[in-house]
Amino acid sequence: MSFNNLDQLYRTVIMDHYKKPRNKGSLEDGSVTIDMNNPTCGDRIHLTLQVTDGIVENAKFDGEGCSISMASASMMTQAVKGKPVDEALKLSTIFSDIMLGKEYDDSIDLGDIEALAGVAKFPARIKCATLAWKAMEKGVQNESHS
Amino acid sequence: MINNEIKSYFPILNQEVNGHPLVYLDSAATSQKPIQVIEAISNYYRFDNSNVHRGVHTLGNRATESYEGAREKVRNFISAKSTQEIIFMRGTTTAINTVAQSYGSANVQEGDEIVITYMEHHSNIIPWQQLAKQKGAVLKYVDLEEDGTLSLEKVRETITERTKIVSIMYVSNVLGTMNPIKEIAQIAHENGAIMVVDGAQAAPHLRIDVQDLDCDFLAFSGHKMCGPTGIGVLYGKKELLEQMEPVEFGGEMIDFVGLFDSTWKELPWKFEGGTPIIAGAVGLAAAIDFLEEIGLDEIEKHEHELASYAMDRMSTIKGLSIFGPKDPGERAGIVTFNLDDVHPHDVATVLDMNGIAVRAGHHCAQPLMKWLQVTATARASFYLYNSVDDIDRLVAGLNTAKEYFNDVF
Question: Is B364 among the residues known to form the active site?
Answer without folding.
Answer: yes
